[in-house]
Design a protein that fits this description.
With about 150 residues, this protein is mostly helical. The protein is built from seven helices and no strands. Helix 4 packs antiparallel against helix 5. About 0% of the residues are buried.
């Protein structure tokens, strides 16, 4: 009796997890493609094209990905990654990722144009200038009143 490849695959693991494994295999393919793309350009070439903040982001994402992959490796070997130093390393990297995000957010925040702000305040708080003050205190011509 000859078995097809599908028959062999379904006999090796419970059929209930087939969809999960297919999704996992697809994700691994995506990771593989992304790694090939990243590795096709030399690191120094890539870093030259990036601003320092972008360089930091790239470094953090790279090291986080590497440690996450090691986490998965530990799990596949039956080692609890939550009890391994990789957990503390991932937390440390996340801390730096948050710091970089704060810096990027501050950089994106609108900056105060002091000149525009002072003009806005000056115009909003109307003060009569000297010429207007003078004309408002003197009665208009032709409307002089006699005082009795």
């Amino acid at each position: 009796m000859e078995m097809s490849e599908d028959d062999i695959n379904t006999e090796e693991y419970p059929t209930e997890i087939h969809d999960y494994l297919a999704a996992f295999e697809k994700s691994l393919g995506s990771v593989d493609e992304m790694l090939k793309t990243m590795m096709s350009v030399s690191r120094s070439e890539l870093l030259q094209k990036l601003e320092p903040l972008e360089q930091a982001k790239l470094d953090l994402v790279s090291v986080y990905t590497l440690n996450s992959m090691f986490w998965v490796y530990l799990a596949t070997q039956g080692i609890n990654p939550k009890e391994h130093p990789v957990k503390q390393e991932l937390e440390r990297i996340r801390t730096y990722m948050n710091k970089v995000k704060e810096i990027a957010d501050k950089k994106k925040a609108s900056k105060l144009d002091k000149g525009a702000a002072s003009r806005f305040v000056r115009n909003a708080l109307w003060e009569p200038d000297a010429e207007n003050e003078h004309t408002s205190k003197t009665p208009a011509k032709g409307k002089k009143r006699k005082m009795d």
